[in-house]
Amino acid sequence: MERHFDEELKELHKEILKMGVITQEAIYKSIEALKNRDKKQAEDLIGADNKIDELELEIDERCIDLIARHQPMAGDLRFITTGMKINAELERIADLAVDICQRSLELSDKPLLKPLIDIPKLAALAQGMVGLSIDAFVNRDVTLAKNVVLSDKQADALRNLIQDELVNDYLAKDPSMASRAVSLLLISRHLERICDHATNIAEDIIYMVEGRVVKHHPEELI
Amino acid sequence: MAKIKVENLNLWYGGFQALININAAFEDRKITAIIGPSGCGKSTMLRVFNRMNDLIEGVRTGGEIFIDGENILNNGVGLEKLRKKVGMVFQRPNPFPLSIYENIVFGEKIHAERVKKDRLGQIIEESLKAVLLWDDLKDKLHKPALGLSLEQKQRLCIARLIAVKPEIVLMDEPCSALDPQATARIEELMRELKNNYTIIIVTHNMQQAARVSDEAGFMLLGELIEFGRTEDIFTRPKDKRTEDYITGRYG
């Protein structure tokens, strides 16, 4: 039986998807601004963040309204509560894209410390994980969500590699390079946090679809 | 620990099978809710626990129901004793057209051969206190019970029930005639009562089942489809039919 409630859930689904698309775009633009040393693009993105904040509040309100009016149960309840969590994760990801832009601005007037190799790799991984987690949400695809969760180790390893290189080859050797090295260090941290948020989204999707809690229970992933 | 154990229970009204191969265990001092659409057999199931269905002509029952290890479907079981142990609260509060006092001591007078007056006074006070009516009614004990509000009448019926010291309380839609505030207060009372009694409630109100029960069972067309912890049934039911019913997709 088709319920009126289903229409409202579809609307919520669309809004979360929209938030996902905007967030993905924000990560992409922040990486482009960094790679191309494009100050304008970085500034534009920082200025546009309030739109994402507004959308976050709108989605939150919609979820609370649905809970209050429909008192959802079972799959409906899991969808709405997961939607609220994914919404918050996406907003944090967009904030991290803004942080990357701020680091880009710090670096933009200074000579390049080194050619960027591993940071774009980590950025590609972060973009991929966010993209897949949103696909997993759209298609209720638990296998895809699991793959995202399992990718997180790769992100941690890459971040450690970048960190070791920056600390040993630049920070420890030449104090004049410290501020640029710290900015790059922070960018790697921001990217790794984006991967963490994508992992959280993927874990939430597994709960949404199957009702299983895998967060903090890695054994449940198998 | 299971207070009631149901094994391969089947029940027919003439040629119609109302309960189909039910197996379940009802825990002591917990509230178990039975939910399901109209005609699914939930009230029939409730009534087998004190053999109220025996009053209906053409009823046949198969299988076993153990209460404290005794199969209550055996022919030798004393129905009077069983119904003292397993009391029932109905949809519409049904106090007798007597005084509040007489309503509560009614059961005691029937079940006990000789009762001392001060013993009755004690029963009245304990029973009314248990349903939180004592303060309101202690000076009106000889007023007619039919003059009480709906909620007070329902509380009085529960007091009348617990006056005979049952161990199991069956509730068939106990709040369906009450407004939301009275419903909330009866639900609070149920939570109090579960410290001393095993409670089984049949309700159409899904939110009520989710709020008050520890365990819940979903019935459909005479079958017990799913039975488990309330939090699991309402957040992640295993059976699609349960999911469809509690999310309003059934039908």
Helix content of chain B: 25-40%
| Helix run count of chain B | 10
Average pLDDT of chain A, rounded to a whole number, is 93
SS-derived structural category of chain A: mainly alpha
How does the overall form of chain B come out from the CA principal axes?
Answer: globular
The secondary-structure element order of chain B is: EEEHEEHEHHHHEHEHEEHH
Number of strands of chain A: 0
Structure description:
The complex is a heterodimer of chains A (222) and B (251). Chain A is an all-alpha fold and 222 residues long. Chain A is built from six helices and no strands. Helices cover 36% and strands 27% of the residues of chain B. Chain B contains ten helices and ten strands. Chain B has helices spanning 42-48, 79-85, 100-111, 117-130, 134-137, 150-162, 180-193, 206-212, 230-235, 240-246; strands spanning 2-13, 16-27, 31-35, 59-67, 70-71, 86-89, 168-172, 198-202, 215-220, 223-229. The chains are: A mainly alpha (222), B alpha/beta (251). At the A-B interface, helix 3 of A face helix 8 and helix 10 of B.
How would you summarize this macromolecular structure in one to three sentences?
The complex is a heterodimer of chains A (222) and B (251). Chain A is mainly alpha-helical.
Give the arrangement of secondary structure elements.
The complex is a heterodimer of chains A (about 220) and B (about 250).
Chain A: H1 4-35, H2 39-70, H3 74-108, H4 118-139, H5 142-171, H6 178-210
Helix pairs in contact in A: 1-2, 1-3, 1-4, 2-3, 3-6, 4-5, 4-6, 5-6
Chain B: E1 2-13, E2 16-27, E3 31-35, H1 42-48, E4 59-67, E5 70-71, H2 79-85, E6 86-89, H3 100-111, H4 117-130, H5 134-137, H6 150-162, E7 168-172, H7 180-193, E8 198-202, H8 206-212, E9 215-220, E10 223-229, H9 230-235, H10 240-246
Helix pairs in contact in B: 3-4, 3-6, 4-6
